[in-house]
Amino acid sequence: MKRHAPATVRNRQPILDVLQQHLPAEGLVLEVASGSGEHAVHFAANLPQLVFQPSDPDHEALASIDAWAETSGLPNIRPAMALDAEAPAWPVERADAVLCCNMIHIAPWAAAVGLVSGAARVLPDHGLLYLYGPFRRDGRHTAPSNEAFDRDLRRRDPAWGIRDLEAVTELAMAEGFTAPEIVGMPANNLSVIFRRS
């Protein structure tokens, strides 16, 4: 049942290092597009004061998330729930933070729109929306490897592709988020940190 995403092993600690500086002291953290569930387990193990709600639209991913959570024995991970970022209503009405790693480039742009509007609905004032992944900046890729990755994504599905950070920022600010804090990450990725204003 457990899926394994090799990149998770490489990026989970750098992501955690950023999250530890920005997540609230306590509360509910909703992870959108949790994938294998490995991130959720790593974060929950290192942030025991927070409750993590993993989610994914894919049933096999949900089974993997629950398998990882069960093996971990951690009390602060809720059972995975089905959540489609594009849905006009989410099964969570309130969260103190929303995390989404490596999703908006492997989904249609409508998923990014849904993610930001959904986060705006469920977050309180000053609530955190955290995005992680590759982004274009000023209309350009930040590395040749990202450009090659983008070409591969668009070959697989023309609706996919690495997003322009400026477009994502414009989308978020239109939904009431502040301008983001940007943190450079390994492998030409970024942490993009928005706050609900």
Automatic annotation (TrEMBL):
Membrane-spanning intervals of the chain: none
Annotated GO MF terms: methyltransferase activity
One Pfam family here: DUF938
A GO BP entry: methylation
Protein name: SAM-dependent methyltransferase
Alphabetically ordered keywords of this record: Methyltransferase, Transferase
